[in-house]
């Protein structure tokens, strides 16, 4: 099988195991769609490591492979691995489009890998803030990488991406809770891994809710293992965590509305001073306004739509995270996304 055939085969799997992201690629600017697919395919592969291995040492070795693969892919010499080949092509195209002025950040790829490895064995989130940090270092970071591929270096766009990524990451952890609590036998690909959940390297179940939230709601892990959705306090704990995800989406919508009206946002971007966020130079011919940045970046921010739809479904089942209604991709996503994109609302 040729490299091109391998990449095409992998994209077919990707469309199956991360269908929401595959649907939302339609709204990403055409020049960045290949990079978007490559970045999401990378996330799917790294997130799937926990499902594919039953030994933490093997999982850590696979993570190290990806650190080395990213280095080689961004240098134009990817290993014979479909996703690495896709990433190398995306990086090459970006540099060609910008005459070498823009590139994908190795440090952001490394951040995703390191965070995934940290949670290979399902260590508990000590508090809700730790869960937010996990979401920032995975899903927000994937959005930063996609914005780079446009290319765009915008504080406004990154700020919106941070809130949307945190909401998506938190919702993904909730979505994966049944899968983590009652893990299936190891397998190469998992639908939950496609949405970014990470079941542990071992097959011992875990309740991946912040410990402070569980304590406040009176949730005991052993009762979840025995009673599932009927465990005392579980729905209250899920509600608390889901509310934090909703808060981030509300904040992003308020920011969007203010910016579209020509106003300012009411708070600073908490990560703007991190080394990876550099706004002193621009890769466009002229400095753009925040409103223009939002317009250019809007397609990249569309995961807000899919995340809100899932949170709405969770509310409709009274925060029963074990409900079978939450295990499928909403059939309404294509037209809801089209409506949101055309009205520039999420």
Automatic annotation (TrEMBL):
Stretches the record annotates as Disordered: 265-292
Sorted UniProt keywords: Membrane, Mitochondrion, Mitochondrion inner membrane, Transit peptide
GO cellular component, one term: mitochondrial inner membrane
Biased composition (Polar residues): 279-289
Cellular location(s): Mitochondrion inner membrane
GO process terms (BP): mitochondrial respiratory chain complex I assembly
Pfam annotation, one family: SQS_PSY
Record family assignment: Belongs to the NDUFAF6 family.
Listed name of the protein: Phytoene synthase
Species this protein is from: Cryomyces minteri
């Amino acid at each position: 099988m040729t490299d091109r055939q391998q990449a095409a085969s992998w994209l077919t799997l990707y469309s199956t195991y991360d269908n929401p992201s595959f649907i939302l690629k339609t709204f990403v600017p055409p020049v960045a769609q290949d990079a978007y697919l490559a970045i999401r395919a990378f996330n799917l592969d790294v997130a799937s490591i926990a499902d594919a291995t039953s030994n933490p040492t093997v999982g850590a070795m696979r993570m190290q492979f990806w650190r080395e693969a990213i280095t080689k892919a961004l240098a134009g010499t990817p290993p014979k691995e479909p996703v690495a080949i896709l990433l190398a092509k995306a990086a090459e195209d970006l540099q060609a489009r910008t005459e070498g002025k823009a590139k994908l950040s190795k440090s952001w790829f490394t951040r995703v890998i390191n965070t995934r490895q940290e949670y290979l064995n399902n260590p508990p989130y000590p508090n809700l803030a730790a869960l937010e940090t996990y979401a920032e270092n995975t899903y927000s970071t994937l959005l930063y990488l996609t914005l780079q591929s446009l290319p765009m270096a915008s504080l406004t766009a990154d700020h919106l991406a941070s809130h949307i990524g945190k909401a998506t990451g938190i919702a993904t952890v909730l979505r994966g809770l049944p899968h983590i609590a009652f893990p299936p036998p190891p397998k190469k690909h998992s639908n939950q891994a496609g949405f970014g959940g990470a079941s542990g390297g071992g097959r011992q179940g875990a309740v991946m809710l912040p410990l402070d939230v569980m304590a406040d709601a009176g949730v005991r892990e052993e009762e979840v293992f025995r009673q599932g959705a009927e465990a005392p306090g579980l729905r209250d704990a899920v509600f608390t965590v889901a509310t934090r995800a909703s808060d981030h989406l509300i904040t992003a919508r308020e920011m969007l509305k203010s910016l579209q009206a020509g106003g300012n946002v009411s708070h600073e971007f908490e990560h703007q001073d991190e080394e990876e966020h550099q706004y002193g130079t621009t890769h466009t011919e002229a400095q753009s306004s925040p409103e223009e940045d939002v317009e250019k970046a809007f397609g990249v921010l569309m995961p807000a739509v899919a995340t809100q739809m899932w949170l709405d479904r969770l509310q409709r089942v009274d925060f029963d995270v074990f409900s079978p209604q939450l295990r499928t991709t909403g059939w309404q996503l294509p037209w809801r996304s089209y409506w949101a994109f055309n009205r520039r609302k999420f």
